[in-house]
């Protein structure tokens, strides 16, 4: 990995768990270009024209494939737009890890817009883990605008864990799903914003087939003067089930707006939305303090657990 | 020794505690009982520092702890089991027990702590302390977090509240063991006869005042006396 320097390694560590040397399938993108790639007979990665992104092809019946597609941005002022398409064959079972780390030491804004489209064939199964991270001392903003579009054929299921814990100044996260019959889409989102950061997330899910179901959980913490907006728009067109939960903790001057919309167009649709926004409950702090933690320690434990 | 000196507390201009004086000794199991609204829970919360008294002092082995915060008191060895346990999204039972004992413990050790309160531990140790746990389960976990600290002064605010009678039978054993084994002071707020039976001393509170302190034999007659509105022949009054 000649093109991967120390800063890159640090970023990779934040968005991935360990080194790449023993990974099965991966594609590392740095400052708008693919710099490292490895494939196997079951999973292929093909570049789109002009380095605009990649197509990942997972063969039918692939058992427990693991694909890593980290993105690193260290060039201040760069706006990187990438289109990644994932074609998951029938009955395939795959884990996809897509981390994005931005390091910006300068004054120019750095932006990464990742447009990820998932096409799940019948009975395909995907676990998609997305992690966003920003660092650097520069005044330039670190901006990440991920778009995730999920098309699910009969019997397929997908779990998406998306986390943005640190250092991203501005983010607009859009997730859209179209579900056929007997499909399940589970989305877990964790966001922490501080200083004057902004985060807006939009979920638009259409449940079209009978027994399609979705569970969206968003847990977020807004501290300092940061602002977050949570918008969900679930449409039930069939005998389907949806549960959307938005939980937010406020600190200092943090602000959170939740706009839930559920639209049942079928008498058999069962759609639920729950939203709770507020500061850390006083009794939670007192309980942990009664176990010997200071107020600050108690707060940290509660937030860490909440975003775990 | 824990001394409570002339504690007074008012809320919304209503007297909740009216000049409470008590001396509590080590190795003793005290039960504070009394009608609803008599000030029992408030007194317990004042001991732990959750509620600040309007006047009066609390002395622990001669040291004035009245102005100390909840965590400072916890560090001095006070423990408090809440009447209504708190839920935490994201924290597991294991996480909470590790905080309680203030060190890294193995899951096996956590299981041993849970077993003491009658929870089949393996099923619980990784559970989140959220709405998926029943009131009774939460209550036992709450009691376990206090016992795990082995506090010098353990305060339990209505441990029976929210627990069904069947489960409570098992829980009384926990308190019986505590009465035998504890080197510290145990204070239980309770209405339950089975808990009162364990007490070395019973403190009866009424309308914010201590009506009487004594051994259970002498207290039982007073506590379980017939309500004044009933006629001698047991016929209910209108």
The average pLDDT value of chain A, as a whole number, equals 92
Helix content of chain A: 10-25%
Largest sheet of chain B: 6 strands, mixed
Q: Which term fits the overall shape of chain B? A: globular
**Largest sheet properties of chain A:** 11 strands, mixed
**Reported CATH architecture of the domain at 2-86 and 150-222 in chain B:** 3-Layer(aba) Sandwich
Largest interface: A-B, 23 and 24 residues
CATH superfamily of the domain at 2-86 and 150-222 in chain B: P-loop containing nucleotide triphosphate hydrolases
Termini gap of chain A = 32 Å
- Strand proportion of chain A, as a percent range, falls in over 45%
CATH topology of the domain at 2-86 and 150-222 in chain B: Rossmann fold
The count of domains of chain A is 1
Q: What is the strand arrangement across the widest sheet of chain B?
A: 6-7-8-3-9-10
Number of helices of chain B: 9
Task: Give structural notes.
The complex is a heterodimer of chains A (308) and B (238). The longest helix of chain A is centred in the last third of the chain and has 12 residues, at 295-306. Chain A has helices spanning 6-15, 282-290, 295-306; strands at 25-30, 33-38, 43-47, 53-58, 65-68, 71-73, 79-88, 93-103, 110-120, 125-135, 142-144, 147-152, 157-166, 170-179, 184-193, 198-207, 213-222, 227-236, 241-250, 255-264, 270-279. Chain A contains 3 helices and 21 strands. In chain A, 44% of the residues are buried. Chain A is mainly β. The mean pLDDT of chain A is 92. With 238 residues, chain B is of the alpha/beta class. Chain B has a domain at 2-86 and 150-222: Rossmann fold (3-Layer(aba) Sandwich). Chain B is built from 9 helices and 10 strands. Chain B has helices spanning 40-48, 70-75, 93-101, 107-116, 121-124, 135-148, 165-181, 193-196, 216-223, and strands at 2-11, 14-24, 29-33, 55-60, 63-64, 78-81, 153-157, 185-189, 201-206, 209-214. In chain B, strands 6-7-8-3-9-10 form a 6-stranded mixed β-sheet, sandwiched between helices. The model of chain B has no long low-confidence stretch (mean pLDDT 90). The A-B interface holds A 219, 247, 281, 283-284, 286-295, 298, 301-302, 304-308 and B 48, 50, 69-71, 74-75, 78-80, 82, 85-86, 88-91, 95-96, 99-100, 102, 145, 149.
């Amino acid at each position: 990995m000649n093109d991967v320097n120390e800063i890159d390694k640090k970023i990779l560590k934040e968005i991935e768990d360990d080194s790449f040397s023993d990974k099965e399938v991966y594609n590392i993108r740095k400052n708008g270009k693919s710099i490292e790639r490895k494939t196997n007979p079951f999973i292929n990665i093909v570049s789109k024209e002009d380095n605009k992104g990649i197509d990942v092809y997972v063969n039918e019946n692939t058992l427990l494939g693991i694909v890593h597609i980290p993105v690193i941005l260290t060039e201040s002022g760069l706006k990187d737009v990438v289109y990644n398409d994932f074609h998951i064959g029938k009955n395939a079972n795959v884990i996809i890890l897509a981390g994005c780390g931005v390091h910006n030491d300068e004054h120019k804004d750095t932006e990464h817009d990742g447009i990820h489209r998932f096409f799940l064939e019948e009975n395909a199964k995907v676990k998609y883990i997305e992690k966003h991270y920003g660092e650097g001392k520069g005044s330039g903003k670190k901006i990440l605008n991920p778009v995730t579009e999920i098309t699910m054929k009969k019997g397929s299921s997908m779990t998406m864990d998306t986390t943005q814990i640190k250092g991203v100044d501005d983010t607009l996260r859009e997730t859209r799903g179209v579900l056929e019959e007997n499909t399940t889409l589970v989305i877990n989102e964790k966001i922490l914003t501080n200083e004057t950061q902004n985060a807006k997330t939009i979920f638009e899910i259409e449940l079209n087939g009978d027994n399609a179901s979705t569970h969206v959980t968003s847990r977020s913490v807004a501290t300092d003067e940061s602002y977050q907006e949570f918008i969900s728009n679930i449409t039930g067109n069939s005998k389907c089930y949806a549960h959307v939960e938005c939980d937010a903790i406020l600190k200092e001057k943090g602000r959170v707006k939740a706009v839930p919309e559920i639209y049942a167009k079928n008498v058999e649709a069962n759609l639920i939305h729950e939203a709770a926004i507020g500061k850390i409950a006083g009794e939670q702090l007192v309980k942990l303090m009664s176990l010997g933690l200071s107020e600050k320690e108690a707060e940290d434990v509660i937030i860490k657990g909440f975003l775990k | 020794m824990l001394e409570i000196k002339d504690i007074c507390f008012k809320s919304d201009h209503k007297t909740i505690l009216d000049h409470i004086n008590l001396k509590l000794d080590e190795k003793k199991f005290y039960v504070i009982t009394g009608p609803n609204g008599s000030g029992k829970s408030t007194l317990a919360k004042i001991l732990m520092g959750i509620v600040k008294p309007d006047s009066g002092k609390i002395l622990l082995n001669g040291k004035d702890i009245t102005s100390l915060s909840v965590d400072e008191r916890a560090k001095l060895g006070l423990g408090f089991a809440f009447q209504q346990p708190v839920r935490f999204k994201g924290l597991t039972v294991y996480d909470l027990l590790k905080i309680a004992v203030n060190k890294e413990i193995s899951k096996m050790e956590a299981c041993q702590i849970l077993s003491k309160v009658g929870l089949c531990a393996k099923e619980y140790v990784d559970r989140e302390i959220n709405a998926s746990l029943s009131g009774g389960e939460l209550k036992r976990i709450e009691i376990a977090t206090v016992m795990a600290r082995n506090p010098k002064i353990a305060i339990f605010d209505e441990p029976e509240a929210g627990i069904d009678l069947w489960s409570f039978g098992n829980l009384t054993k926990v308190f019986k063991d505590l009465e035998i084994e504890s080197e510290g002071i145990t204070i239980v707020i309770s209405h339950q006869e089975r808990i009162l039976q364990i007490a070395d001393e019973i403190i009866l509170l009424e309308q914010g005042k201590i009506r009487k302190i004594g051994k259970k034999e002498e207290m039982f007659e007073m506590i379980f006396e017939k309500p004044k509105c009933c006629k001698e022949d047991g016929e209910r009054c209108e």
